[in-house]
Amino acid sequence: MIAKEQEITVAEARSRVDEFVQRHFGPDPAHPKLGPVDVLEDRTTEYDNAFGFAVNTRRFIESDDLRDSLMSGAIIVPKDGTPVHWAPTFLPVGEYLDKVASGEWWWAADGAEPVTDIQYYGLITPGRTRESPSGIMRRRTAEGRTIDEVFTRSLAWKPTDYFRRYDLGHNEDDHVEITAEEAAEFVRRIRARSAQQG
Fold first, then answer.
1. Distance between CA atoms of 152 and 136, rounded to whole angstroms?
2. Which spans in 64-179 are helix H?
3. H-helix or E-strand containing 46?
4. Which residues of 24-51 are buried (b: 16+ CB within 10 A; e: fewer)?
5. Dihedral sign, Cα of residue 35, residue 37, residue 41, residue 47
6. What is the pLDDT of residues 46-76, one digit of tens each?
7. What are the sequence ranges of the domains in the chain?
8. 119 strand-pairing partners
9. What is the phi-psi region of residue 81: left when phi exceeds 0, alpha when psi lies from -120 to 50, beta otherwise?
10. What does the pLDDT average to over 8-34?
11. Who has the most CB within 10 Å: 34, 77, 107, 108?
12. CB 99 within 8 A of CB 78
């Protein structure tokens, strides 16, 4: 049974987001390494079926440096009473919400799980090094569940089965663990190159 969408105000949605952020980042919301976390007021968007809120570290808001960023999706407050959750990171928020509205997708099932750890990896193909990987991947752990993603040419994180294939011996390309800063720098370079070619 599909629940009827409820009319909620942006203030009510914001209150739910504040509770969600405190549940994930503590009563004085802060990332353990990147410091205080804030909701970006000017990035709040109302869609037909939900509100979308951007959240990031205060350091990123002030510096616009990806190395200071949470690198997470928007926080979604559905209007149908579904729990507040993180939007998937592998497609634009509007597209995700359109797919839910059309019935093509359900709300993100694992969106409400807090990410407890993120590890980044550089893809090392022949002729590439840690300093110049051919791509990057990340492994996010949420409530003991592992989510593997690759940063794609479409400038978004998308699911990958690379690590599963690697463990089974079906992938000849190697990988090396890199820092969040190195991953952010790779993303920055790719986005800058894409903008130049734009």
1. 9
2. 93-102, 162-167
3. strand 45-46
4. bbeeebebeebeebebeeeebeebebbb
5. positive
6. 998 999 999 988 888 888 888 888 877 789 9
7. 10-102, 115-197
8. 139
9. left
10. 88
11. 77
12. no
